[in-house]
Specification:
CATH architecture of the largest domain: Sandwich
Organism: Clupea harengus
Strand content: 25-35%
Shape: extended
Number of strands: 17
CATH topology of the largest domain: Immunoglobulin-like
Membrane topology: Single-pass membrane protein
Subcellular location: Cytoplasmic vesicle, Phagosome membrane; Cytoplasmic vesicle, Secretory vesicle, Synaptic vesicle membrane; Lysosome membrane; Peroxisome membrane
CATH class of the largest domain: Mainly Beta
Subunit structure: Homodimer. Can also form heterodimers with SYT6, SYT9 and SYT10. Interacts with calmodulin (CALM1, CALM2 or CALM3). Interacts with CD63; required for localization to lysosomes. Interacts with APP.
Number of helices: 7
Structural class: alpha+beta
GO biological process, one term: positive regulation of transport
Number of domains: 3
Length: 395
């Protein structure tokens, strides 16, 4: 009997323990369910998934929006309008990126000149440097004195990454009588320090003239390339004393304007050590023939330092100012020569009975103008990808 009572006592203790544990587990479960009622993670773990695109609306928290939704809104607001197509719910932006990639033709990346893809809109104005000069009038001798002092931060016009600048001086509207400085070879910050006299000019006529300075890059075997220009009406200057000016150079009105644009792509293959230039098309080319049209073709020169290495050219498109070429030209460029390589692209007008005319040029390298340098850097940063960009043709 004693053993049976002990067994009954033991059984009663075990039953009480089991009851207490069960109660504790029940309370914990109820607490967890209440705590996780609005927790999406727990709902997913418990198999209570909401249907895609459907949000719970019963609780105040769902009406206010969760923290995760606020972050998604902030991230989407950080994107520029138009980057995310309508109907995409991808918080991290993967869908919009893939849609953008799929919208491009083939593997070609299209960039605008001088822009960092989406960071800017439209081309960035090219910096042409500036020039310092002085001007004054001698009433006793009826002479106008112009001093060309120096230039600063001029752009490189030669494939060697420098220029050979000189200055032409005019008193507009007279273009026949001009004066010129000496050429400063291989110098982007030239010091001329030259003085010029326009003798026997009555002061009344001087005030009717405009001082016009044109900075050019001297070329021994071809036409001099215009760098920039400055004009200042002399009736707005106190000529009784020598006045010194620093003026920013502007694009030459008779230089690059109206020559047209060329669309081309670059592709760098580091494994094969090649740069492939695809001449795609041109638009609004300058008419070089009497009939108001041109017969354009494109000539390409691969330059290493100052040496011409290889020449290629497209076919000629007859009587067309908006030709489509779509011709590719691979050039072998060793990796150690990339910083010393320039590709000169010249759009020509074919003439049967005379010398072919130059419509415009483009110098592609890591040290050319801003638009050209950007295209070169984009090519290097996207190996094995055709990176296309429009370029304005220059004289």
């Amino acid at each position: 009997m004693y053993l049976n009572r002990e067994e009954e006592s033991t059984k009663g203790s075990v039953s009480l323990s089991v009851f207490l544990v069960s109660m504790a587990v029940t309370v914990c479960a109820v607490w967890l369910v209440a705590l996780c009622g609005v927790c999406g993670w727990c709902q997913r773990k418990l198999g209570k998934r909401n249907k895609p695109g459907v949000e719970a609306v019963e609780t105040p928290d769902s009406l206010r929006g969760s923290r995760g939704e606020k972050k998604a809104i902030n991230r989407n607001m950080g994107n520029k309008p138009g980057n995310s197509p309508k109907g995409t719910n991808d918080v991290d932006g993967h869908s919009s990126v893939s849609d953008l990639a799929n919208s491009l033709t083939g593997d070609m990346v299209m960039l605008s000149p001088g822009s960092e893809e989406d960071d800017h809109e439209g081309p960035v104005n090219e910096k042409l440097g500036r020039i310092q000069f002085s001007v004054g009038y001698s009433f006793a001798e009826s002479n106008l004195t112009v001093k060309i002092l120096k230039g600063q931060d001029l752009p490189a016009k030669d494939f060697s990454g420098t220029s050979d600048p000189f200055v032409k001086i005019y008193l507009l509207p007279d273009k026949k009588n001009r004066l010129e400085t000496k050429v400063k070879h291989k110098n982007l910050n030239p010091h001329w320090n030259e003085t010029f006299l326009f003798e026997g000019f009555p002061f009344e006529k001087v005030r009717e003239r405009t001082l016009y300075l044109q900075v050019l890059d001297f070329d021994r075997f071809s036409r001099n390339d215009p760098i920039g220009e400055v004009s200042i009406p002399l009736n707005k200057v106190d000529l009784a004393h020598m006045q010194t000016f620093w003026k920013e150079l502007k694009p030459c009105s008779d230089g690059s304007a109206g020559r047209g644009d060329l669309l081309l792509s670059l592709c760098y293959n580091p494994t094969a050590n090649t740069i492939t230039v695809n001449i795609i098309k041109a638009r609004n080319l300058k008419a070089m023939d009497i009939g108001g049209t041109s017969d354009p073709y494109v000539k390409l020169w691969l330059m290493h330092k100052d040496k011409r290495v290889e020449k290629k050219k497209t076919v000629t498109i007859k009587r067309c100012l908006n030709p489509i070429f779509n011709e590719s030209f691979p050039f072998e460029v060793p990796a150690h020569m990339l910083r010393e390589t320039t590709i000169i692209i010249t759009v020509m007008d074919k003439d049967k009975f005379s010398r072919n005319d130059v419509i415009g040029k483009i110098y592609l390298s890591w040290k050319s103008g801003p638009a050209e340098v950007k295209h070169w850097k984009d090519m290097m940063s996207r190996p094995r990808t055709n990176v296309a960009q429009w370029h304005a043709l220059k004289a």
